[in-house]
Amino acid sequence: GSTLDPYDTSGVTDPSQEDKMYFEIATYVFATITGLVLLLSILMIPRIAVAVACLKVASQAISTMPFILFFPVVPFLLEVVLIVWWIAVSIALYSAATVKEDPDGGYTLEWDEQMRYMMAYHLFGLLWTNQFLVGFGLCVIAGAVASYYWCRGDASRMPFSPVHAAMRRTARYHLGSIALGAFIVAVIQFVRVILEYIDRKTKETQRSNSLLKYAMCCIKCCMWYLEKVMKYINRNAYIIVAVKGSSFCMAANRAIQLIIINALRIATVNLIGDTLTWLGKVAVSLGCGFLCFMMTDTAIYTEPDSVWYLSSPLLPILFTILISYFIATCFFQVYDMAVDTIMLSFCEDCEKTDGKPEYAPPLLMSALGQSHADSKSANQIAPKQ
C-alpha cells in the first residue's frame, strides 16, 4: 500500500490563518460595541452627572445621620427572634403527630387535616412576617434619608434624630401599607413553595412526560420573576409611602409612573450605584481576607507545636471572606436604599414643578446647572415629624 508522507501538508488548512480570521471578526465586533458604548456615554453625560450627584447626596445624607449605618442590626435581631420562635412552634406542631405502628414493626408519624392546615398557616406566617420586617426596615431608611432631601440638604432643619423620627412615623402611620406589600410578596412566595412541593411529588411523571416538565419549569420561572418584580415595586412604593404618606396602592401606582417616566435616569443611577456598591463589598471582603491571612501567618498559627496550629490557612480565609461579604451586603443595603430614595425624591420633585426641582440639595442642583434662586419660589416644607 501507499505510505503517508509526514511532511506532506497539501490540502491542510493553516490554523494560523483561521485564527487570524476569527481574531479579525472579534476585533470588528468589539470595536463596534466600544464605539456604541462611547457614543451612548457621550449622549448620556447629563444623566450621568445627575446620577453621580445622587450618589454624592446619598453619601452626604448618611454622613448627617451615621447611626443609620447600624440600623440594619435592628431588623436582623428581629429576624433572629422570628426564626427562633418559628422553629420552636414548628417543633411543637411536629410533635403533635399521631404515632402509628407499622405491620413490619416500624413506626410512622401522621398528622390530621387540621394539623396540616396549621403547618401551612405557620409557614405562611413566617413568609409574611419576614417580608413585613424587611419592609419596615426599608421604610425607616427611606423616611430618614428623605428628610435630608426635602430639607434641601440643610442638616439644621432636620430632626435631632432622623432615624428615630422615621421609626416613629413608620410605626404610627405606615404599618398597614407595609403589611399589605408584605402580604402580596408572601402570597407569591407561598405559591412558589406549593409549586416546589408539586414538582417534587411529580418527578416520576415528569420523566415520562416532557411537556409536563416544561410546563412546570415555565410556571416556576414566571413565579420567580413575578416575585422579583413585586419586590422591586414594593421597594419603591415604600419610598413614596415614607415621603408622601400615601397608601400602599397609591404609592405603588405613583412609583411605577415615576420609574417609567424617568427610566433612563433611574437606569443610569442603578448601573453606577450597583457597580460602586459591588466594588465596595469586594473591597471589604478582600480586606478582611487579607487581615485574616496576616493573622494566620503569625507564629501562634504556624508553629507545629502550637495548640492553634493550622496546616492550611485556606479554609479560615475563605470563611472570613464569605462572612465579611455577607455583613458588608447588609450594611451596603442602607446605601442602596439611600440612593434610591434620593433618586425617587428627585423625580417626584421634578414632576411636581415641570422638571425644575425646588427642594433638591445644592450639590444636585449644581449638577443640573441650576440654583435654588433659579427655581420657582416655594415654601420650605419639611416632612411632618
Mean pLDDT: 85
Radius of gyration: 29 Å
Strand elements, count: 2
Query: Structural class per helix/strand content?
Result: mainly alpha
Choose one word for the global shape.
Answer: globular
Percent of residues in beta strands:
under 5%
End-to-end Cα distance: 99 Å
Q: What ranges have pLDDT less than 50 throughout 5 or more consecutive residues?
A: 376-385
Give the helix tally: 12
Assembly context of the chains: single chain
Helix content: over 70%
Tell me the series of helices and strands, N- to C-terminal: HHHEEHHHHHHHHH
Strands ordered across the widest β-sheet = 1-2
| Major sheet details | 2 strands, antiparallel
What key attributes describe this structure?
single chain; 385 residues; mainly alpha; two-stranded antiparallel sheet; 12 helices; 2 strands; 2% strand
Explain the layout of strands and helices.
Elements: H1 15-43, H2 45-64, H3 73-95, E1 98-101, E2 107-110, H4 113-150, H5 162-201, H6 203-208, H7 210-244, H8 248-261, H9 263-296, H10 299-302, H11 314-352, H12 362-367
Antiparallel strand pairs: 1-2
Helix pairs in contact: 2-9, 2-11, 3-4, 4-5, 4-7, 4-11, 5-7, 7-8, 7-11, 9-11
Please provide a written account of the structure.
By secondary structure, the protein is an all-alpha fold. It is built from 12 helices and 2 strands. The chain has helices spanning 15-43, 45-64, 73-95, 113-150, 162-201, 203-208, 210-244, 248-261, 263-296, 299-302, 314-352, 362-367, and strands spanning 98-101, 107-110. It has a two-stranded antiparallel ribbon. Helix 9 (263-296) runs antiparallel to helix 11 (314-352). The longest helix has 40 residues, at 162-201. The relative contact order is 0.11. Residues 376-385 have low confidence and may be disordered.
